[in-house]
Amino acid sequence: MKYDVVVIGGRVGGSTASLFASKNGLDVLMIEKRQEIGTPVQCAGGTFRSTFDTLEMQPSPKYVCAEIYGGIICSPDGNRVKLKGKEVGGYILERKAFDKHLAIESARAGTDVMVKTMVTDLIREDEKVCGVVAKHMGKTMEIKADLVIAADGVESQIAPLAGLNTQKTPYDLGSCAQYEMVGVDVDLHYIEFHLGENLAPGGYLWVFPKGEGVANVGVGVRNSPHHAYHYLQKFTSQLSATPVELNVGGVPLTGMVDPIYTDGFLVVGDAAGQVNALSGGGIHTTVECAKIAGEVAAESVERNDASASFLKRYEKLCRITVGKDLKKSLKYRRVFDKLRDDDFNVITKFLDGYDLESISKLSMMSLIKEHPHLLRLLKEIL
Ligand SMILES: Cc1cc2nc3c(=O)[nH]c(=O)nc-3n(C[C@H](O)[C@H](O)[C@H](O)COP(=O)(O)OP(=O)(O)OC[C@H]3O[C@@H](n4cnc5c(N)ncnc54)[C@H](O)[C@@H]3O)c2cc1C
Q1: Could you give the 3-state DSSP secondary structure of residue 27?
Q2: Ranges of H-type helices in 24-89
Q3: Do 166 and 273 touch, CB atoms closer than 8 A?
Q4: Which residues does 262 contact at the CB level (< 8 Å), separation at least 6?
């Protein structure tokens, strides 16, 4: 078998890269190890409106559960503050249906898809990646390609085979556990973020509405004494809601891997660390970068040049598109890591009445005037 491009992983990163490579006329094969694309879910499904601009698609009720107008920050002292603004508007997606839909769109654009097929190795000639070894129902096959794109998620085994340093230590990861629950009292158009050192050490707890009292209730923690599931159980045991699904997973929180390309090879999505280090959100940044990967793949095949020096443009474009935001999120996360419950309380109180866009350095200075000890903590973002 020979393709222009083989894409490893069939969820949001893989399907988006395949979609744009196929739309640009390439012969693409997307390989997914699971028998069903989109499962098991490892996501709360929150993303921005602009994700669909990037995908060049209209969001569909087939997978949009709720439209989001803003967020509610819940501080340890019980204060609840509503935040609005362009930056927090978006959707809650049913990831199982969304990922499947993206794969279908990609197949419609011409991508061949193999499910229940695991890529186990890369084929290399003169140090250049030129295909994959895959296993399907006990049968091993070699598939040649001009370019391989790895979108195999946070536990990526493939990029290291190409010589890229994508391995994560537990310190690099947020550990998450989430229930989809029925009977949750939550506003359909607002996502909730609960803060507290005992509630979610090193992270936060979220309640994302999906409609008719159904919500994703999850916890992400980092460097915590217990696993995220412990904190999830503690919080949800006080609700009179019933879980109908449990999801667990890790999120890379240390920024974009460097480099994200080599001869004949690109890496996208969680595998490349293309995730907001403060929120743990990766759908939007993955879509942005995977689209670039699909388009650069098309140029590379057209020029018959899959050398690292040509593919460098993938990293350059990713850094232009999402690099600044990812760097900023790392800075904010470093500040967040130092905040204690008392700080969360005063900052939440300060946020009351603001649109996110209207928070200026000047307004933050007024907060610091009242609470001078915050200067030491916030100076990195001022
Ligand atoms: C609990 C939780 C909640 C989250 N909530 C949000 C949220 O609300 N909003 C948001 O923006 N982000 C969220 N994220 C992050 C988001 O889910 C990821 O950033 C996003 O899914 C990354 O997509 P991806 O395609 O890179 O990787 P994945 O979605 O991990 O997909 C990788 C795919 O590759 C396949 N694969 C792996 N190895 C192989 C192989 N060798 N051969 C073939 N196939 C292979 C896997 O089966 C999988 O289907 C959350 C993450 C977690 C864990």
Answers
A1: coil
A2: 50-55
A3: yes
A4: 129, 162, 163, 164, 308, 311
Lowest mean pLDDT among 7-11, 171-175, 215-219: 171-175
84 Cβ contact partners less than 8 Å away, ≥ 6 residues apart: 69, 70, 355, 356
Name the residue at shortest CA distance from atom 27 of ligand 1.
Answer: 153
Mean pLDDT of 151-158: 94
Q: Look at residues 48, 37, 38 and name the one whose alpha carbon lies nearest to residue 71.
A: 48
CA separation for the pair 219, 194 (Å, rounded): 9
Residue from 19, 33, 91, 279 to probe ligand 1 pocket by mutation (most atoms less than 8 Å from CB):
33
Which amino acid residue places its CA nearest to atom 50 of ligand 1? Answer: 43
- Ligand 1 first shell, C-beta below 6 A: 8-14, 31-34, 42-47, 118-119, 151-154, 157-158, 176, 178, 218, 247, 249, 251, 269-271, 275, 280-284, 286
Q: Cα(220)–Cα(203) distance, rounded to whole angstroms?
A: 5
Torsion of CA 226, 228, 230, 231, to 10 degrees: 110
> Each residue of 96-143: pLDDT tens digit?
999 999 999 999 999 999 999 999 999 999 989 999 999 999 999 999
H-run or E-run covering 292: helix 283-302
- Closest by Cα among 153, 155, 161, 107 to 268: 153
Residue 358 clears pLDDT 80, i.e. is over it: no
| H helical segments located in 202-253 | 228-236
**Distance of CA 270 from the midpoint of ligand 1 (Å):** 6
Sorted by where each starts, the structural domains of the chain and their CATH numbers stand as 2-66+92-167+254-327 (3.50.50.60), 171-252 (3.30.9.10), 335-381 (no CATH)
State in Å: Cα 11 to ligand 1 middle: 7
Rounded to the nearest angstrom, the distance between the alpha carbon of 303 and the centre of ligand 1 is 31
pLDDT above 90: residue 206: yes
Nearest atom (ligand 1) to Cα of 268: 26
Pocket probe for ligand 1: among 6, 7, 12, 246, the residue whose CB has the most ligand atoms within 8 Å is: 12
Q: In angstroms, what is the span from residue 378 Cα to ligand 1's centroid?
A: 31
